[in-house]
Amino acid sequence: MASFLIESPHTKDDCVKAIQYVHAAGYLTHFHWGCKSGDHTGYAILDAKDKAEALMVVPTMGRPRARVIELTQFTPAEIKAMHDKG
User: For residues 17 and 14, what is the distance between their CA atoms, to the nearest angstrom?
Assistant: First the structure.
């Protein structure tokens, strides 16, 4: 499993529908929302086997505009190796 950052933008008009979809899919507790600040986007970090699986938590209407970014955590050894190369 890998970790992914999901950004799921939606319009103000689709706001309630997007949140209801995420709730119905069982992922409401995974998302943080910018809607009350005027940024109609849902943000989540979750584990999935690949980007396609991670995208499935995004409402169907929002998938074309969603961003799914695979995240990496570096160990101290990896940082040292990068430093030694550079």
Answer: 5
Burial of 12 (0-12, 13-18, 19+ CB in 10 A): exposed
Query: Would the pLDDT of 6 be above 70?
Result: yes
Q: How far apart are CA 21 and CA 60, in angstroms?
A: 9
Convert 21-31 to b/e letters by CB count within 10 Å (16 or more is b): bbeeeebeeeb
pTM: 0.86
In sequence order, which residues have a C-beta less than 8 Å from that of residue 29 and are 6 or more positions away? none
User: Distances in Å between the alpha carbon of 7 and those of 61, 74, 75, 86?
Assistant: 13, 22, 26, 32
Half-sphere exposure of 6 (CA within 13 A, CB side): 29
Backbone CA torsion sign across 86, 79, 4, 41: negative
